[in-house]
Amino acid sequence: MTFDPRALRDVFGCFTTGVTVITTNPADAPVVGVTANSFSSVSLDPPLVLWCLGKESDTVPVFESVPNYAINFLAKDQEELSNHCAKRGDHSLDCAELDVATTGAPIIKGAIASLDCEIADRIDAGDHIIMLGKVVDIVIQDIDRAPLVFGRGQYRALS
Ligand SMILES: Cc1cc2nc3c(=O)[nH]c(=O)nc-3n(C[C@H](O)[C@H](O)[C@H](O)COP(=O)(O)O)c2cc1C
């Protein structure tokens, strides 16, 4: 590597994104939510999306075993929930009101919209795992609400 990894992190961080919480419902364990801004749409037909999970996350064993998850696009007023689901070692969703999607994945009430996904593939990618999902249902809650936005390491307001 001819560049400083810190500089690479800074460049990645200047790509401003929305914020999602990825939720799933493991067998014989409480539901789990992980904050992620690595979401990307991939394909309309078939409907595919991805997000990336750090290999050091406590939640890797969960996402290696479940068949589905939901991607919840957070609204501007859900910063507290985003911080809660980003806490190391605590990915419980006790603080959130939940619904159940078609696949059985939990849906966060109050999100802008949620994508109910079957896991299509898990792709090894350096220090992350690319979680490729096939969208099997969409839940639109309030598409006109302002999104939670993250860039350069902070939540941002859209102007
Ligand atoms: C705004 C934001 C975006 C994040 N995006 C990701 C992501 O895309 N992938 C990921 O693995 N972790 C991401 N994280 C970190 C995780 O939410 C979590 O903090 C991390 O997995 C450490 O906890 P764990 O080891 O208990 O999983 C993000 C955190 C924040 C605050």
Features:
single chain, 159 residues, mainly beta, Pnp Oxidase, Chain A, 7-stranded antiparallel beta sheet, 3-stranded antiparallel beta sheet, 12 strands, 13% helix, binds flavin mononucleotide
Task: Give structural notes.
This protein has helices spanning 5-13, 60-65, 79-84; strands at residues 17-18, 20-24, 32-36, 40-43, 48-54, 68-73, 98-100, 106-108, 113-125, 128-140, 149-151, 154-156. With 159 residues, it is mainly beta. Flavin mononucleotide (FMN) is lined by residues 19, 34-38, 51-54, 57-59, 82, 86, 88-89, 150. Residues 19, 34-38, 51-54, 57-59, 82, 86, 88-89, 150 line the site of flavin mononucleotide (FMN).
* Largest sheet, spatial ordering of strands: 3-2-6-9-10-5-4
Rg on CA atoms, Å: 15 Å
Strand content: 35-45%
Helix/strand-derived class? mainly beta
CATH-defined superfamily: Electron Transport, Fmn-binding Protein, Chain A
Q: How much helix, percentage-wise, in residues?
A: 10-25%
Mean pLDDT: 97
Ligand list = flavin mononucleotide
